[in-house]
Amino acid sequence: MLDPRLYRVAFVPVLLALLVAAFSLQDRPRAVGTTLVPDAFDGVRAQQTLDDLVARYERRRPGSATDDAMASEVARRLRAVVPGTVEQHRYQADTIDGRRTLVDVVATRPGAPGPPLVVVAHRDAAGPGARAELSATAALIELATIAADGRLRRTITFISTSGGSGGFAGAREEARRLGGRADAVLVLGAVGATGRRRPFVVGWSDGVGQAPLQLLRTVQNAVRAEVGTDPGGPRAVTQWLRMAVPVTVGEQGAFLRAGQPAVLLSATGERAPAARAPVSRERLSAFGRSALRVLYALDDFRDAAQPPRADLVIRGKVLPEWAVRLLVGTLLLPVLVAGVDALARTRRRNEPVLRWAAWTLSAAVPFLMACVFAVLLALVGLIAVAPGGPIPAVALRLGAGPAGALAAIVLVFVLGWVLTRPALLRVVAGGGHPDTPGAGIAVGLVTWAVVAGLWLANPYAAALAVPALHLWLWTSSPDLRLPRPAGLALVLAALLPVLLVGLADGRAFGLDVPHSVWFWTILVAGGHVPIGSWVLWSLFWGCAVSAALVAVRKRRPRDEGPQDVTVRGPVSYAGPGSLGGTESALRR
C-alpha cells in the first residue's frame, strides 16, 4: 500500500529546512558585566545570621508554627535594614504536608523608576536543621542590608517564601502577584553548601522554554569571577530533552512558567541538599558575592526583562525556536504524504479504515482512565500530598499511602484494558483482527495526528515521537515482510527517545525508578501537568500499543506458487499475433 518513492520525495522539504536552520544560527547574547567589586557582602555576618536562625527555628515544615514564627523574624530583620515597605502575604496552598496556610515576606526597597530586580529564597525545609537550604535566607538578608546603603539605584524586591520544600507554592504565589513587573528574578538556592553539583546556574522552566540566555550568561560570569570555577552548563542534547518535558525541581521554574525571567543560583545545582548537608562560610561568601555582582551588573542594564525562550544553544551558537519547529514539522511530511496516498489506495479496494482508527484510539482509553483516576484521588484527598508543583527528592516519600494509590491506579488501568476497551470496541469498531491493510494505515495516520498535536504545543516533545511515527508506519504496513519478533522490536525501539527523557529527568532529580513513577503520578494528580499534555501522551501510548498489536498479528504474506499462463493462443506459442493482429499485419 505504501509508495516508497513518494515517501522519499517527501524528505526534500527536510533538506530545505536544514539549510534554513543552518543560516538561522545566531551568536549568543553577551553577558552583562560590572566594574564594581562585590566586597560589601560580609560572609561572617551572613554565617552568624544563619547560625542564629538554625538555632531558633530548626524544624521548619511548611505552614507550621515554627515556619510562621521564622517568617515574622525575617520580616523584623528586613524592616530593620530595608528603607521601604515590608509585607506579609498569607494564603492557602498545597504543600508536602497537605493543605496549609503559608506566609511570604516581601520587602521592597524603592529606587529608580522601572521594573524591579527580585531576589527570592525559601525558608521552609522537609528535614530538621537543613542549614544548607537556610543559607539562602541568610544570604538574602545580607543582600538586603547591602541594598540599604544606596549603592544600588534600581528598585529591588526581596521575597522570603514558604512551600519551597515541595510544590513551590510560595514561588507560584509571588510570581502571580508580580505579574509582568520583574526585570530579573534571582532565586537563591543552597549557596552555602559544601557539596558541588554543576551547573551552579539553572534556568529550566516548569513551562515552555528556559531562562533568557543573557540573564543566564550574566549569572554564570558572576560565578566564574567570584567562585573561581566553571559554573557548568547543559549540552544541546540535554537542553532538547529538558525542554521536551519541561519540569524542574528548582523554584525558578515557577517564575519562568509565569513568564518572569528567572534563574537559580545554588552550589548544589538543581537538586536540594540533604537535611544534614554541611555549610561552608567560604562557599557562602563566594556565592553571596556572586549574587551581589549580578545585582551590580543588572543595576545599570535596562533591557534584561525578556520572556523565557525555547531557543537551543549549540556550540556557542543559538538555534531559534522557530527553526526547530520548522525542522521538526518537515519531518512529519513524509508520513503524511505516504499515509494519505496509502489511504486512497485502501479506500479504492473498499478496505475499512475508519473503524480501525477507532480501534487505535481505543487503546488509549486505559491510559486516560488511569490519569483521570489519579486526578480524582487527589481531589478527594486519597492522595494526600499532591501540590501543584514538583517535589524534590529529599522530600519525596514512598509509604503505604503512595503504594496503595499506585496499586489502585494500576488496577483501574487493567480494568480499562480488560473491560472498558472491549465494550467500547463492540460499539464503535465491531469485530475483526488487525491483520488487514486498513488497520496498519489507521495506526499510521492516527499516530501522525497525535504527533502533530504535540508539535503544535511543543516541537521538542514532538521530535521525541518522530522515530516512532516513521517506524510504525512501515511496521504496520502489509507490504513490509518482517518476522513478528523483528516488527515488535522495531515498535519498541521507536520508544527509546521517550524513555530516555524519563531516565534523564530521574538522574537530574536524584530519583530511582519507584520514586520517578510516584513523582510523575503526583505531577498529573496535582494538576501540574496540563490536561492537554497527558491527553496527548495517553493517545501516543495508545498508538504504541496498537502498533505493537498490528506488528504481532499482521498476516504474513504467502509465498506465491507457479502461475498459469493466461495469454491467448496455442500453449506452445505466446508471441506476436497471439493477442490479435500486430500493427505490421494490419497495414497489409
Automatic annotation (TrEMBL):
InterPro entries: Peptidase_M28
TM helices/strands, residue ranges: 322-344, 356-386, 398-420, 441-466, 486-504, 511-528
Coiled-coil stretches noted in the UniProt entry, renumbered to this chain: none
One Pfam match: Peptidase_M28
Residue ranges, annotated region (Disordered): 559-588
Assigned keywords, A-Z: Membrane, Transmembrane, Transmembrane helix
Chain ranges of the Peptidase M28 domain: 105-207
Protein name: Peptidase M28 domain-containing protein
